Amino acid sequence: MHKDLNDEFHFIKAGMRLKNRVVLAPLTHNMSAKNGDPSQAELDWLARCARGGFGLIIAAATQVWPGGRCWSGQPALMTLSQQNAFSTLAKTASENEALVLVQLHHGGVRAMPELNAGSPFGPSGEQSGGRYALGVTELKDNDIRELIEAFIRAAQRVYDAGLHGVELHAAHNFLLCNFLNPKLNRRTDQWGGSVQNRARFLIEIVRGIRARMPRQFLIGVRLSPESYANVVGTELDNQLAVTRLLAAEDIDYVHYSMGDTFKSVNGQVGVDLLTELSRAIPDDIPMMVAGNIRDARGAKLALTGGADLVAIGTAALGNPDWVKKVDKGIALVCPPYSESWMLDQGFTSAALEYLRTMTGVVKRVKEA
Ligand SMILES: Cc1cc2nc3c(=O)[nH]c(=O)nc-3n(C[C@H](O)[C@H](O)[C@H](O)COP(=O)(O)O)c2cc1C
Q1: Ligand 1 atom 14 nearest Cα
Q2: Fewest CB within 10 A of the end CB: N or C in the chain?
Q3: pTM reported for the whole predicted model
């Protein structure tokens, strides 16, 4: 089937329509308050992206539980006032014919000790030293049940805020990804061992949200298909098995965070990762991909390669009007961006402080 960026896209099971296939990838920006209250600047930035034509906006990794925080300016969705702040995005969405999802997150083994009450939590304990300065504390069965409830409660807040759904962040070596990973999840109870057991945490969240919210409420899951950057011990075969389990649940899409959408499978030169994923994912589960999609050509290539939806990350940071520019044939500004350009796009100095830590996003001072 020929697919184009400006095609309408339908989440069939939910009966929800997107005006195009272009998605704003979840992008942490470090603009929330220390307690997770979203700032006007970040709500304005998301509104700018909605005005810029993205059919679907996925708000940044958002904290659902008092622990698990990863960035000092990470947004949270744990209080009524935070819910009220997010609710302003419902107006943004309807004014721009966009849908807005919130990405629900717990940092797991990557949570920052200085932002939480000490050592991070994970599926299994880890010694202190090396990657984990304070070690990792193993979650108890009742902690896992409480965390499932916390994810569902945050999803309820997304719904009550008038937004359209959630993306569960099960990628990038954060908590839900840690449980899927047999190297980090060495449990012998119902939350570890087989892939069914390792995926149980994620699937219980999906089922809990589905049971409590009307069917129009979208649920997507973000997965890392393989190891890269912060992800260790994640293998394609395992992630394909997880995808098959998710496909049997009532979800609306799987979002693969590819790093590079056009890469080969790790260690298998010439075996195209996107092709392998698109062969494995059942036809009735929409596939979203992100990673190194900079321009219309790349986005179309991803669609041709089997994706249904393309998520734009770095290119959107400097071009919140990416879709409009592409439609009109206006040249995109290329990363790394100058700091003054990013300030003009609505990022604050706290955002710049974070963006400077990411490779290739903002110009080093001597490059400016
Ligand atoms: C500044 C920045 C913040 C990011 N924040 C998140 C996030 O909150 N959640 C997430 O799943 N991925 C996050 N990512 C990853 C992006 O969603 C995307 O997958 C990645 O940047 C690759 O796409 P790109 O090459 O288009 O940038 C972030 C990336 C960048 C550059």
Answers
A1: 27
A2: N
A3: 0.98
Give the other-Cβ count within 10 Å of 365's Cβ.
Answer: 9
Distance separating alpha carbons of residues 305 and 286, to the nearest angstrom: 13
CA-to-CA dists, residue 96 to 50, 89, 92, 344, angstroms? 6, 11, 6, 21
Question: How far, in Å, from the CA of 54 to the mean position of ligand 1?
Answer: 16
Q: Residue 218: in which H helix or E strand, if any? A: strand 218-223
* Closest C-alpha to ligand 1, atom 28: 27
**Tens digits of per-residue pLDDT, 7-58?**
999 999 999 999 999 999 999 999 999 999 999 999 999 999 999 999 999 9
Is the bond into 336 cis (omega within 30 degrees of 0)?
Answer: yes
Contacts of 354 (CB under 8 A, 6+ apart): 28, 29, 30, 71, 73
List all residues whose CB is within 6 A of at least one atom of ligand 1: 25-28, 60-61, 103, 169, 171-172, 222, 257, 290-293, 312-315, 355, 358, 361
What is the enclosing helix (H) or strand (E) of 224? Answer: none
Ligand 1 atom nearest to CA at 222: 11
Q: How far apart are CA 247 and CA 253, in angstroms?
A: 9
Mutate to test the pocket of ligand 1, among 22, 23, 24, 28 (most ligand atoms within 8 A of CB): 28
Q: pLDDT for 100-111, tens place per residue?
A: 999 999 999 999
Strand partners for 285 = none
Contacts of 194 (CB under 8 A, 6+ apart): none
